[in-house]
Amino acid sequence: MKNSFIKIATIVAIGSAFFTSCKPKDSSSAAEGDAEKAYVAPGKYDEFYNFVSGGFSGQLSVYGLPSGRLFRVIPVFSVDPEKGWGYSEETKPMLNTSQGFVPWDDLHHTEMSQTDGEVDGRWVFGNANNTPRIARIDLKTFKTAEIIELPNSGGNHSSPFITENTEYVVAGTRFSVPGDYSNGDVPINTYKENFKGHISFVKVGKEGQMDLAFQIVTPGVNFDLSHAGKGKSHGWFFFSCYNTEQANTLLEVNASQRDKDFIMAVNWKKAEEYLKAGKGKKQVVKYAHNTWNEKTHSASSEIKNEVVVLDAAALKDICYMIPCPKSPHGCDVDPTGEYIVGSGKLAALIPVFSFDKMINAIDKKQFEGDYGGINVIKYEAALHGEVQKPGLGPLHTEFDGKGNAYTTFFVSSEVVKWDIKSLKVLDRVPTYYSVGHLCIPGGDSKKPFGKYLIAYNKITKDRYLPTGPELAQSAQIFDISGDKMKMILDFPTIGEPHYAQAAPADLIRNNGQLKFYKIEDNHHPFATKGEKEAKVIRKGNRVDVYMTSVRSHFAPDNIEGIKLGDEVYFHVTNLEQDWDVPHGFAIKGADNGELLIMPGETTTLKWIPKKVGMYPMYCTDFCSALHQEMQGYVRVSPAGSTVPISFSVGTNFPKQTATK
Q1: Helices (DSSP H) in 266-378: which residue ranges?
Q2: Contact 69, 493 (CB under 8 A)
Q3: Could you say which of 1, 195, 225, 315 would form a disulfide bridge with 220 (CB–CB 3.0 to 4.6 Å)?
Q4: What are the φ and ψ backbone dihedral angles of 270, each rounded to 5 degrees?
Q5: How do residues 530-576 score in pLDDT, each as one tens digit?
Q6: Using CB atoms within 10 A of its CB, is residue 476 exposed (0-12), middle (13-18) or buried (19+)?
Q7: Mean pLDDT over residues 484-490, rounded?
Q8: What is the pTM assigned to this prediction?
Q9: Which residues, 6 or more positions from 458, have their beta carbon under 8 angstroms from its beta carbon?
Q10: 633-578-620 Cα angle (round to 5)
């Protein structure tokens, strides 16, 4: 233990000295950047959409490349009062889980759908790291369309990575835990006996609908990251694994004892064969599956109670372990599908494995024993080679489609370019500072688009105006079209960016993007398709307000007869049939949020008045020159009041006496 601790301390010390005592080589030119290449003139479009994880914000943000302009923050796993996500009655079911309503999560990774290994612009997937879930965002609407919870999982970090035809979205548990179908009330120090890992395979249908097809139970390791095979390695998946010591406390020391951890190779085609042969075992679990309906503009949540589990230790040819330098983080597959890059965070080299050699080693049974019942392939038998002295703290690798790989180094704060076949370092550039993930548009697909590389950094001290103890997170764009990388721009980001993906703008912009909802196709049960249909209906203490919004008034805009103890539901339909004319709705005293209603959409705000009085309501989204005039009033009377329900727009009520 002492030796391992010394090794870690030495690496950290070297990195600290590097960071504090000297600037990276060529830092002055890199710091200046080349802003002309990042400039997008007013009214002109960016070349790429960049979908960036929001980390602890729980959301997904959309930037343009190369400008770095923020276009949109898409609510996914966290409530968002700006758009009413998780506040409106329609969206609340999207955040339902087996734990109940969970209004926050930690979105680390994004992954775009692919066809034949190429980015196709249909959907982008995101993971919830805390309460394990996977979301699918529809790129026709830029709205979260589906969220599925993952049982038997503790920390959904190694996701949501996809197979080359989006057959599956796959996830590995970060924290091994006792399965939901077993007794979880066990001492923590019985980790080796009772804790298991689970890999989830979520089937994706032609329209994007997700279904938890099966899980594979594995020894109790921590899965960090993953990527699917492609081309020749299609049918396989690769996961980085750490904590093979199966420690349960002080992992920074106790999970760094071994010189090597593993890359786990999973033959999911073989797993499918075992499923068809009935080798899976149905286990009783509980998880939520939430879907958005574009016709009703509403979400529904279904609790499911079963999952099929395959045992990797019993079915010997679905999983194999490949030794990898300790604490591997990234696990990346090159565009040909031949090379698998493992990044040991504490290593001073980068191991590159060969798919062909791995298959040959399996065929010849070149194993060095097993780990928890899973065969361990000999390191040299699967190794293509090692990139020597590339930098300190290798994390993630992406590819440009020209035979080059680009790896981030957290400790030495740099991106290094190297040749995949020769393993020769070709170029290196500093980042500012402590880079984590990187993104090359299409960089994990069979057809990278190259041109730009974006580094997502953890530290920004001295890069921007200070903002107290917490500083902005950072992304930096590099031009990689030539032999040498050159920084052209850096920009602050939402939350803590982890992984991100990007695709050509035209691939998404011209893919049938929705501009507004047609009123005639609105099947929301409380839709009000014309102003004449506006009304207020009382049923006991429930009051439903069928309301319309159009430039620049609500109908109705005067409502009386609401009493203390009532539950009021404002069902607001935006009657606009023009692109980019949303309306907002808010009322004084609302203790949840506001609404943001797209053209042709219906959205509901539940409101419970707390005291007698007059409550203004108004449009929160600037919609016209008379936006300020888009307002109204709701009168709330005592619980025993005899004031009847009445409503109007453009007409004063008959004079009524105030209630005492």
Answers
A1: 268-276, 355-363
A2: no
A3: 195
A4: -65, -35
A5: 999 999 999 999 999 999 999 999 999 999 999 999 999 999 999 99
A6: buried
A7: 96
A8: 0.93
A9: 410, 433, 434, 435, 436, 473, 496
A10: 30
